[in-house]
Design brief:
Helix content is 83%, strand content 0%. By secondary structure, it is an all-alpha fold. Helix 1 (2-39) packs antiparallel against helix 2 (44-78).
């Protein structure tokens, strides 16, 4: 039974990482969209709206990813310490309350690796053609 749980944990973990890759694809789509819009001198408001939608879509992927994390946490509680590193359990134990968590989300959204493409692309979309 432990082997089955370990196998399930590994599968969920790989899916979790796959969602991370999908978030990167969304960022790349935003870059391509902006480049095409600039090349063809598209109106900036539609581009800004599409970029905002992509940003929100990445947030949705991250929500799906969080659901996988919940499953991983449940599995980690069923497996003994010797069988598996409690990676997600450790993350969960460090999770703050509601307002600190919202502040943490906002700080994460403003991290260069998250905000960088969207803010730069929005700026580029605003440049006169």
């Amino acid at each position: 039974m432990q082997h089955l749980r370990q196998s399930q944990w590994l599968t969920l973990h790989q899916q979790y990482e796959h969602y991370e890759m999908l978030a990167l694809v969304i960022k790349l789509v935003a870059v391509v969209l902006t480049l095409v819009a600039v090349m063809f001198a598209a109106a900036y408001w539609p581009v800004l709206l599409i970029l905002a939608v992509l940003w929100l879509q990445e947030g949705i992927w991250k929500t799906f990813q969080a659901r996988l994390e919940a499953s991983l946490l449940a599995l980690e509680t069923q497996v003994t310490d010797d069988d598996l590193l409690p990676l997600y359990t450790n993350w969960q134990q460090n999770r703050p309350g509601l307002f600190p968590l919202v502040a943490q989300y906002l700080r994460a959204a403003l991290r260069p690796t998250v905000a960088y493409p969207y803010l730069v692309l929005m700026f580029i979309a605003l440049l006169p053609g």
